[in-house]
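Attaching the record inline, Q. Sequence:
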Amino acid sequence: MTATSTATPLHALTTRRSVKFLRGPAPKPDELEQILQAAMSAPDHGALRPWRFVVIQGEAIGKLADVALEAVKRSGDPRMTPEKEKSVREWMAGVPLFVAVAQKIAHDNTKIPEHEQLLATGCAVMNILNATHMLGYGAFWSTGVGTYVEDVQNALGLDSLDYRFLGYLAIGTPACAVPPAKRPDFRDFVTEWTGPV
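Structure, as predicted:
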Protein backbone atom coordinates (compact mmCIF):
# COMPACT_ATOMS: atom_id res chain seq x y z
CA MET A 1 0.00 0.00 0.00
CA THR A 2 1.27 3.49 -0.73
CA ALA A 3 0.56 6.76 1.00
CA THR A 4 -2.18 8.59 -0.87
CA SER A 5 -3.24 11.47 1.36
CA THR A 6 0.10 12.54 2.76
CA ALA A 7 1.67 14.95 0.26
CA THR A 8 3.87 16.43 3.00
CA PRO A 9 4.41 15.45 6.62
CA LEU A 10 2.42 18.47 7.81
CA HIS A 11 -0.42 17.62 5.42
CA ALA A 12 -0.40 14.09 6.85
CA LEU A 13 -0.78 15.44 10.37
CA THR A 14 -3.67 17.72 9.47
CA THR A 15 -5.56 15.12 7.40
CA ARG A 16 -5.37 12.20 9.85
CA ARG A 17 -8.68 11.12 11.28
CA SER A 18 -10.05 8.14 13.14
CA VAL A 19 -11.51 5.40 10.94
CA LYS A 20 -13.63 2.84 12.79
CA PHE A 21 -14.75 0.64 9.92
CA LEU A 22 -11.76 -1.22 8.56
CA ARG A 23 -11.00 -4.27 6.46
CA GLY A 24 -7.93 -6.04 5.12
CA PRO A 25 -5.28 -5.70 4.15
CA ALA A 26 -3.49 -4.75 7.32
CA PRO A 27 -0.05 -3.19 7.17
CA LYS A 28 2.55 -5.65 5.91
CA PRO A 29 5.04 -6.92 8.52
CA ASP A 30 7.72 -4.40 7.54
CA GLU A 31 5.15 -1.58 7.63
CA LEU A 32 3.95 -2.68 11.06
CA GLU A 33 7.55 -2.58 12.25
CA GLN A 34 7.84 1.01 11.00
CA ILE A 35 4.56 1.95 12.68
CA LEU A 36 5.59 0.49 16.04
CA GLN A 37 9.09 1.94 15.78
CA ALA A 38 7.51 5.39 15.35
CA ALA A 39 6.10 4.98 18.86
CA MET A 40 9.65 4.86 20.21
CA SER A 41 10.15 8.53 19.24
CA ALA A 42 7.56 9.79 21.72
CA PRO A 43 8.71 12.38 24.26
CA ASP A 44 9.51 10.49 27.45
CA HIS A 45 10.70 12.23 30.62
CA GLY A 46 13.32 10.05 32.30
CA ALA A 47 13.46 7.61 29.37
CA LEU A 48 11.16 5.22 31.25
CA ARG A 49 9.56 3.91 28.03
CA PRO A 50 6.26 3.32 29.82
CA TRP A 51 4.33 2.22 26.72
CA ARG A 52 3.57 -1.44 26.05
CA PHE A 53 1.83 -2.89 23.01
CA VAL A 54 0.29 -6.31 22.35
CA VAL A 55 -0.29 -7.21 18.68
CA ILE A 56 -3.44 -9.24 17.98
CA GLN A 57 -4.14 -10.55 14.48
CA GLY A 58 -5.47 -13.53 12.55
CA GLU A 59 -7.32 -16.15 14.60
CA ALA A 60 -6.34 -14.38 17.82
CA ILE A 61 -8.91 -11.65 17.06
CA GLY A 62 -11.77 -14.13 17.39
CA LYS A 63 -10.26 -15.40 20.64
CA LEU A 64 -10.03 -11.84 21.93
CA ALA A 65 -13.69 -11.26 21.04
CA ASP A 66 -14.70 -14.40 22.96
CA VAL A 67 -12.64 -13.54 26.04
CA ALA A 68 -13.52 -9.85 26.14
CA LEU A 69 -17.23 -10.14 25.48
CA GLU A 70 -17.70 -12.95 27.98
CA ALA A 71 -15.79 -10.94 30.60
CA VAL A 72 -17.93 -7.86 29.93
CA LYS A 73 -21.10 -9.92 30.33
CA ARG A 74 -19.79 -11.44 33.59
CA SER A 75 -19.06 -7.93 34.86
CA GLY A 76 -22.79 -7.20 34.67
CA ASP A 77 -22.48 -4.32 32.19
CA PRO A 78 -26.10 -3.74 31.10
CA ARG A 79 -24.97 -2.25 27.78
CA MET A 80 -23.81 -5.66 26.54
CA THR A 81 -27.12 -6.71 25.05
CA PRO A 82 -27.27 -9.56 22.52
CA GLU A 83 -27.61 -6.94 19.77
CA LYS A 84 -24.53 -5.07 21.02
CA GLU A 85 -22.52 -8.29 21.27
CA LYS A 86 -23.45 -9.22 17.69
CA SER A 87 -22.45 -5.76 16.47
CA VAL A 88 -19.09 -5.82 18.28
CA ARG A 89 -18.29 -9.31 16.99
CA GLU A 90 -19.07 -8.26 13.42
CA TRP A 91 -16.91 -5.16 13.76
CA MET A 92 -13.97 -7.07 15.22
CA ALA A 93 -14.23 -9.77 12.55
CA GLY A 94 -13.69 -7.11 9.88
CA VAL A 95 -10.63 -5.54 11.48
CA PRO A 96 -7.40 -7.30 10.44
CA LEU A 97 -5.14 -6.00 13.24
CA PHE A 98 -5.53 -4.84 16.83
CA VAL A 99 -2.81 -3.40 19.02
CA ALA A 100 -3.61 -3.37 22.74
CA VAL A 101 -2.12 -0.36 24.53
CA ALA A 102 -0.92 -0.16 28.11
CA GLN A 103 1.20 2.01 30.36
CA LYS A 104 3.68 0.11 32.51
CA ILE A 105 3.53 1.32 36.09
CA ALA A 106 7.04 2.12 37.30
CA HIS A 107 6.68 1.10 40.95
CA ASP A 108 10.31 1.89 41.77
CA ASN A 109 10.23 5.34 40.15
CA THR A 110 10.25 8.27 42.57
CA LYS A 111 11.13 11.03 40.13
CA ILE A 112 8.75 11.06 37.16
CA PRO A 113 5.09 11.70 38.03
CA GLU A 114 2.72 8.99 36.81
CA HIS A 115 0.69 11.47 34.77
CA GLU A 116 3.83 12.25 32.74
CA GLN A 117 4.27 8.55 32.05
CA LEU A 118 0.65 8.36 30.92
CA LEU A 119 1.16 11.35 28.64
CA ALA A 120 4.27 9.72 27.15
CA THR A 121 2.23 6.61 26.38
CA GLY A 122 -0.44 8.76 24.74
CA CYS A 123 2.25 10.43 22.63
CA ALA A 124 3.53 7.01 21.55
CA VAL A 125 0.00 6.09 20.48
CA MET A 126 -0.33 9.34 18.52
CA ASN A 127 2.90 8.49 16.69
CA ILE A 128 1.41 5.09 15.80
CA LEU A 129 -1.79 6.71 14.52
CA ASN A 130 0.14 9.23 12.44
CA ALA A 131 2.53 6.62 11.03
CA THR A 132 -0.41 4.38 10.14
CA HIS A 133 -2.04 7.26 8.25
CA MET A 134 1.21 8.21 6.53
CA LEU A 135 1.46 4.67 5.16
CA GLY A 136 -2.05 4.92 3.72
CA TYR A 137 -3.99 2.89 6.30
CA GLY A 138 -6.72 3.77 8.77
CA ALA A 139 -6.87 3.38 12.54
CA PHE A 140 -9.24 3.81 15.46
CA TRP A 141 -8.46 4.00 19.19
CA SER A 142 -11.18 2.06 21.00
CA THR A 143 -11.78 1.88 24.74
CA GLY A 144 -14.59 -0.60 24.26
CA VAL A 145 -14.24 -4.40 24.15
CA GLY A 146 -13.61 -4.74 27.87
CA THR A 147 -10.89 -2.15 28.34
CA TYR A 148 -12.04 -1.45 31.89
CA VAL A 149 -12.67 -5.08 32.83
CA GLU A 150 -9.74 -6.53 34.76
CA ASP A 151 -10.20 -10.07 33.40
CA VAL A 152 -9.64 -8.78 29.86
CA GLN A 153 -6.48 -6.94 30.82
CA ASN A 154 -5.14 -10.03 32.61
CA ALA A 155 -5.99 -12.27 29.63
CA LEU A 156 -3.78 -10.03 27.47
CA GLY A 157 -0.86 -10.58 29.84
CA LEU A 158 -1.11 -7.08 31.30
CA ASP A 159 -1.45 -7.71 35.04
CA SER A 160 -3.45 -4.86 36.53
CA LEU A 161 -0.93 -4.48 39.34
CA ASP A 162 1.76 -3.55 36.84
CA TYR A 163 -0.06 -2.01 33.89
CA ARG A 164 -2.76 0.56 33.18
CA PHE A 165 -4.71 -0.79 30.18
CA LEU A 166 -5.72 1.98 27.77
CA GLY A 167 -7.64 0.20 25.02
CA TYR A 168 -6.97 -1.00 21.51
CA LEU A 169 -5.84 0.46 18.22
CA ALA A 170 -7.83 -1.10 15.37
CA ILE A 171 -5.71 -0.88 12.20
CA GLY A 172 -6.46 -1.75 8.60
CA THR A 173 -7.67 -0.40 5.28
CA PRO A 174 -10.66 1.96 5.43
CA ALA A 175 -13.78 0.00 4.45
CA CYS A 176 -15.31 3.01 2.69
CA ALA A 177 -14.38 6.50 1.56
CA VAL A 178 -13.30 8.70 4.45
CA PRO A 179 -14.39 12.32 4.04
CA PRO A 180 -12.16 15.05 5.49
CA ALA A 181 -12.93 15.94 9.08
CA LYS A 182 -14.13 19.44 9.88
CA ARG A 183 -11.61 20.80 12.35
CA PRO A 184 -12.03 23.77 14.68
CA ASP A 185 -9.97 26.90 14.27
CA PHE A 186 -6.94 26.73 16.56
CA ARG A 187 -7.53 30.36 17.56
CA ASP A 188 -10.51 29.24 19.62
CA PHE A 189 -8.14 27.28 21.87
CA VAL A 190 -5.09 29.55 22.11
CA THR A 191 -4.26 32.68 24.07
CA GLU A 192 -0.99 34.57 24.23
CA TRP A 193 0.44 35.29 27.65
CA THR A 194 2.33 38.59 27.94
CA GLY A 195 2.70 38.82 31.70
CA PRO A 196 0.91 38.36 35.01
CA VAL A 197 -2.79 39.26 35.09
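Helices lie at 9-15, 29-39, 59-74, 82-94, 114-134, 150-155. The chain is about 40% helix and 15% strand.

More tomorrow.
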